Design the sequence.
């Protein structure tokens, strides 16, 4: 709307059963506030969905788009990154605080992931002798070296 490109498509997409997402673009003009973008999208969807009532001087009995719908646009419909969510409470108990899961030993999780990676690499190497198919079958000569380097990180 800021750039004059039309109205958000949340209302029309929902009418066709399409799951919407939301994100922040051109943050130098609009800021990076995803919650603000969701609020604006929700307001636009509600005003357009209820315009016929308003034109007749009536109030709608029910809002078709909920705050939970807007929250889904910015979270579970996956157009954001988990780091964008700072805090999550479930039944009043924090499970995420300061962008990190509560009670997770990140060092241990990384060590377990690296051990799993090493097991997979070693198993493939024992069985096949190489991590990738022959270079001539890929037409990309450097893939094996890149894959090995990435597996060491």
Sequence:
């Amino acid at each position: 709307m800021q750039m004059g490109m039309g109205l958000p498509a949340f209302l029309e997409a929902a009418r066709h059963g399409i799951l919407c997402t939301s994100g922040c673009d051109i943050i130098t003009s609009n800021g990076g506030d995803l919650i603000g973008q969701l609020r604006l999208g929700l307001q636009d969807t509600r005003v357009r969905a209820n315009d016929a009532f308003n034109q007749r001087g009536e109030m709608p009995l029910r809002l078709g788009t909920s705050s939970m719908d807007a929250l889904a646009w910015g979270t579970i419909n996956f157009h954001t990154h988990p780091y964008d969510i700072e805090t999550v409470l479930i039944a009043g108990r924090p499970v995420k605080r300061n962008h990190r899961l509560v009670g997770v030993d990140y060092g241990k999780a990384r060590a377990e992931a690296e051990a799993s990676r090493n097991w997979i690499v070693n198993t493939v190497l024992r069985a096949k002798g190489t991590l990738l198919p022959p270079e001539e079958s890929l037409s990309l000569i450097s893939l094996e070296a890149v894959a090995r380097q990435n597996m060491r990180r």
Notes: Residues 10-101 form one domain. The beta strands are 88-90, 93-97, 100-101. The helical segments are 10-15, 27-30, 34-49, 51-55, 67-74, 106-128, 135-138, 143-152.
